[in-house]
Design brief:
Blueprint: H1 4-10, H2 18-32, H3 44-51, H4 55-67, E1 71-74, E2 78-81, H5 92-101, H6 105-129, H7 132-145, H8 152-169, H9 173-192, H10 199-217, H11 221-245
Antiparallel strand pairs: 1-2
Helix pairs in contact: 1-9, 2-4, 2-5, 5-9, 6-8, 6-9, 6-11, 7-8, 7-10, 8-9, 10-11
Length: 248
């Protein structure tokens, strides 16, 4: 599967540095349960030997994972894996590690719940504050989603750009932060399922997004919230149908 454009869009680093490789390896081991909640990680010497890195690189990686809420270092005890409730689930790397490790239907439902909690309200704000140039961009993205000549990844990228632009149009800095979650969520779902779509389905996706664009053109706050809610619910139903056909 081609992933280059989506990876670039979400800022997912290529693992070129030792620091990035160690963060990814340990983070994925924690999410997948290789290191379970409450476990004390091996000591520095063992991890340095296992990962083939210096103490400086290891400690910087540990700081990164601590900032994500995944581990907690304690003097004379060691570094403990924290409860999942402490993890920063708005962190794009943490979210993508979940998809890489394999997610449950329950996890996907939680993800759609949080999108439903934030995005319709953000769409309402965007309808009140939208600039004509932004609306034109949204229309272009929606039309790209319906272009059967485009690859599945390119259509997925248009979908991602569409939703992230709306968080920016809202003018609310907290909504912009949610944009990183939306990016990772859409990329992760694409990585997991990447379903083949027939031309009619592709056309329907484009049309549903264009209805939201029309609400922005009319500066109709209520319609924008309603149409965004429908988009998210449609996505929720599609992924549930996919997981029913392809149980993990």
């Amino acid at each position: 599967m081609q992933r280059g454009m989506l990876d670039a869009a979400i800022g997912f680093r290529k693992l070129r540095t030792n620091h990035a490789q160690v963060v990814h390896k340990l983070g994925l081991d924690i999410v997948s349960g290789t290191f379970k909640t409450g476990d004390i990680l091996p000591g520095d010497a063992e991890l340095m030997e296992r990962l083939k890195v210096s103490r400086t690189v290891l400690r910087e990686a540990m700081k990164t994972l601590t900032a994500k809420g995944m581990i907690s270092p304690k003097a004379r005890i060691g570094t403990r894996v924290t409860e999942r409730e402490s993890w920063n689930m708005f962190d794009s790397e943490v979210l993508l590690w979940h998809f890489e490790a394999g997610v449950s239907d329950e996890f996907l439902l939680h993800l759609y719940d949080i999108r439903q909690a934030f995005e319709p309200y953000g769409a309402g704000l965007a309808a009140l504050r939208a600039k004509d140039a932004d609306i034109a961009k949204l229309a272009a993205y929606a039309n790209e989603m319906g272009n059967t000549a485009y690859s599945k990844e390119k259509r997925a990228l248009a979908d991602m750009n569409f939703h992230v632009l709306i968080t920016e149009m809202s003018g609310n800095p907290f909504m912009r932060t949610v944009g990183s979650l939306i990016k990772a969520a859409l990329a992760g779902i694409f990585r997991m399922s990447n379903p083949e779509a027939d031309p009619n389905e592709i056309s329907d996706v484009s049309a549903s997004h264009l209805r939201l664009v029309e609400a922005f053109r009319l500066r109709d706050e209520a319609a924008a919230r309603r149409e965004m809610g429908r988009l998210i619910e449609n996505g929720r139903q599609q992924i549930l149908q996919f997981t029913a056909r392809h149980p993990r």
